[in-house]
What we know:
Strands 3, 4, 5, 6, 7, 13 and 14 form a 7-stranded mixed beta sheet that branches. Strands 10-9-8-11-12 form a 5-stranded parallel beta sheet. The protein has helices at residues 41-48, 53-63, 133-150, 169-180, 194-199, 234-239, 261-272, 289-297; strands at 2-5, 16-19, 29-38, 76-84, 96-100, 111-115, 123-126, 160-164, 184-189, 204-207, 220-225, 243-251, 280-285, 304-308. It is of the alpha/beta class. The radius of gyration is 19 Å and the shape is globular. It folds into 2 domains: 2-143 and 256-308, Medium-chain alcohol dehydrogenases, catalytic domain (Quinone Oxidoreductase, Chain A, domain 1, Alpha-Beta Complex), CATH 3.90.180; 146-254, 3-Layer(aba) Sandwich (Rossmann fold). The two termini are 26 Å apart.
Amino acid sequence: MKAIICDKYGTPEILRVAEIEKPVPKEDEVLIKVYATSVTNSDIFIRSSKVSLKLLIPFRIMMGLRGPRNPIIGEVFSGEIEYAGSRTKRFKAGDRVYGLTGFSLGAYADYLCLKESDSKRGCIALMPRNIDYIGGTYAAYGGLLALQFLEKVKIGIHSKVLIYGACGTSGTFAVQYAKYLGAHVTAVCGPENLGFIKSLGADRALDYTQSSSVKLLDKYDVVFDTVGIAKTSALKTAAKSALMPSGKYLSIDDAGLLLESDRLNEIKDLIESGAVKPVTDRVYPFEQIAEAHKYVEMGHKRGNVAVEVNSAIWN
């Protein structure tokens, strides 16, 4: 089978396509034919090892000293069950599935093996029936990240919610989800995306590059920072204190991503109901995954950047 190999840390050019042996599943695992994956910020960090000096040593101990311990990186996948081991219960051959591989990585390949039970090494669930595999990668990563934090707070009709970094994968999901719950949503993004984010349902859109936007802040029940400490602005600093007396400030840096199939099932229901629609910026062929890494690293994507691993006919 073909796979993308990352055997040392570095720039996108180190990624190469190779032919390797197809994995053989154990009887408590499923074998998944991967149709699509995504390039996420997590993938960028793993490939480049560009983390703060404080985190560099723990990162290398956890992921690998000179290169990723698993040279096939990638966390997000959507695909089809080709084989279900005799000790599995949740899936059967032919099921369309999506999920994350966690610390086991391995999504940048034709096939991967996963246990069906949730752990730090992955989670898997049936895909929404009304989207294709490309959309499945958006739903898995953006949905898990957004819901993990927004479910910590009570959002309802008349709630005022501000989403900082509203045009990323988790940001676009968060905007749609908050609107579904009835909130008044203020979305923060760059000037080129103001119209786009309002088309997803945002009631107001603020340009983080303009200092005048600080004066337009309201008081919010929830402020959700989807970009973390890596990026800041005067508007972001001001938003931290633009809270109602009982308001909550949430950041994706507050906790690691939880890999939970129950949450994937909830995302499935949201997408099948039409409450949330996948947002995909670009789709790259498998052989051009280095270009996808370069694009994501620029930091200006709209929603998901997907990679087609295998072509599929979807009805």
